[in-house]
Amino acid sequence: MSLLDTLQKDMITAMKAKDKEKLSTVRMLKAAATNEKINLGRDLNPDEEVSVLSHELKQRKDSLAEFKAADRPETVAQLENEIKIVESYMPTQLSADEVQQIVATTIAEVHAESTSDFGKVMGAVMPKVKGQADGKLVNSTVKELLSK
Q1: pTM
Q2: What is the rounded CA–CA span in Å between residue 119 and residue 16?
Q3: How far apart are CA 5 and CA 3, in angstroms?
Q4: How far apart are CA 56 and CA 52, in angstroms?
Q5: How confident is the model over 49-93, as pLDDT tens digits?
Q6: CA 83 to CA 71: how far, in whole Å?
Q7: In this structure, what are the phi and psi dihedrals at residue 71, rounded to the nearest 5 degrees?
């Protein structure tokens, strides 16, 4: 079942349950996926679906940090709820240990030796963890392992 089909089904369920918060979030996700489908002129493949979800999740996390800094608790609570809903559609996230193991393996594969090889390692790691790990976690893990 494609992401759009799942979102449509969940949207109907949220309407019936009168869950306004979930309904609005699912509608935003469905609109983002539909827009991407229109831009590409074809159905989305699973990687593109994860990319759309990752983008929406990142937007909400960035906004959350800004609203926390601005001391807006009502908006913070709403965004935290939206983040939980978006995360429910994401693939299972890798643990920090799993990310560290993938990075260490990749460093050996590309023969990286110092922090000057950072770009080469990131370029090789990100496709392996796409949608399964936060970019900030991967970034810090690569820096940590290359500086040893």
Answers
A1: 0.74
A2: 48
A3: 5
A4: 6
A5: 888 988 898 899 899 989 999 989 899 999 999 999 998 998 888
A6: 18
A7: 55, 60
Cα separation, 93 vs 87, whole angstroms? 9
Tokens encoding 80: 């935290």
DSSP state of 130: T
- Residue 10: the pLDDT is 94
Residue 131 has pLDDT above 80, yes or no: no
pLDDT at position 44: 87
- Which sign, positive or negative, has the C-alpha torsion 54, 56, 59, 64? negative
Domains annotated on the chain, with CATH? 3-89 (1.10.1510.10), 96-146 (1.10.10.410)
